[in-house]
Amino acid sequence: MQLLRVAWALAGATICCFLILLIHSRLLKEGQLAAGTCEIVMLDRDSSQPRRTIARQTARCACKKGQIAGTTRAMPACVDASIVRTKQWCEMVPCLDDEGCDLLINKSGWTCTQPGGRVKTTTAL
């Protein structure tokens, strides 16, 4: 008798979880992002100059309240809006783990320096 109750409870919980997932998937229509996530919608690379590549990317983000689109570990991400407002770019951890982050002198962006000395410069628009 006790085993039958447990089985019914598990079946009910399974159906409930399935219905929640179904409702959630209906609310997030095609092309709509979940809150707090980003996706790259355009990536353009220009290698016309020797030893220099200019890359531009456009990301689409659905950030939560108090957040804004930014960069974390070289990927688009939602970051605290105060980081962008104060232009303290390195606080959003934009570089990879083995790279060092430095602010540009005019605070228009940051550089990520790799262990071998290669420098990647990013400017914010």
TrEMBL record:
InterPro entries attached to this UniProt entry: Chemokine-like_TAFA, TAFA-5
Molecular function GO terms recorded: G protein-coupled receptor binding; receptor ligand activity
UniProt keyword annotation of ATP-binding present: no
Keyword set, alphabetical order: Membrane, Signal, Transmembrane, Transmembrane helix
Record GO cellular component, one term: extracellular space
Family: Belongs to the TAFA family.
The name this protein goes by in its record: TAFA chemokine like family member 5a
Gene for this chain: TAFA5
